[in-house]
């Protein structure tokens, strides 16, 4: 990708043994298409993952599984820098500097922190969870084109859903604050609002978002599910006492969720699907949807397994991605250290 193309940075946590359908349709599917006309940096954010307790062996395994899945769904290491967050140490360094520019009140107002800390209680809430959005800001700003030397900068975009908009606004605020205090350094990033497929909800609790932390195993379709398990989950998905396949969020939340999934995977409008299944009932609809899900996800699972089978090659991909990302991050931090006033290291 030409360096004149706008840059994109996005990351995903390795907090489970598989991504789920909501992750895939909500963001990851679009990561692949962004490679066509952007300079893309994608990372597995293992530093973020340790804001909750996790066993070291699980974290290590899940980090590789996450990277393999990204490759399996179409992230191309020839076009994108795919790397592990902790492999680029400048993420942590810039987070400390930005933390020193962030007000306590600003950090405490972050909605996700308030929600999670309210559920967990103060005694179980770590400082890492509190400063999570600041590390996220560092992740982003490390890869913004640094101001200086060029008349035109290609811009910087961050793919986000609505639930991350507040965190991106904090990032923009911190970039502007740094620039005001220390001189123009960061290009203030723009949100790249992901094309909405609507919220993908729990197959058993269609009023709730599909989520590893909240959903039951039967409510989640995992990207790495075996075909039989995947088909069974779709066939057992909650609908309602009627039989019409129509989109009605209020009265048919379960059917509406299945229609969103079908539409997003097949590229067919919901209206067309409603017409297709007029008079056919839920049985045929679910059977066809299960096949659509299998056709979309089975090749990803098979490719992921191949990448995981060659761990040395997978690690080489991540090492090369970290090298490419590290070159950009090191250039950014060299300027940041100078602007802040740190004495240049003499060796």
Low-confidence stretches: none
Strand content: 5-15%
Which percent range fits the helix content? 40-55%
Number of helices: 13
Span between N and C termini? 34 Å
- Rg (CA only): 22 Å
Mean pLDDT rating: 89
What is the string of SSEs from the N terminus onward?
EHEHHEHHHHEHEHHHHH
| Structural class by secondary-structure content | alpha/beta
Number of strands: 5
Overall, the morphology is: globular
Order of adjacent strands in the largest pleated sheet: 3-2-1-4-5
Main beta-sheet annotation: 5 strands, parallel
How does this model look, in words?
- The protein is α/β, with parallel strands linked by helices and 347 residues long.
- The chain is globular and about 75 Å long.
- Helix 7 crosses helix 8 (165-182) and helix 10 packs across helix 12.
- Strands 3-2-1-4-5 form a 5-stranded parallel sheet, sandwiched between helices.
- It has helices spanning 21-34, 46-49, 56-72, 90-99, 104-108, 111-120, 127-141, 165-182, 227-235, 253-266, 270-276, 281-309, 311-340, and strands spanning 7-12, 39-44, 80-84, 156-160, 190-193.
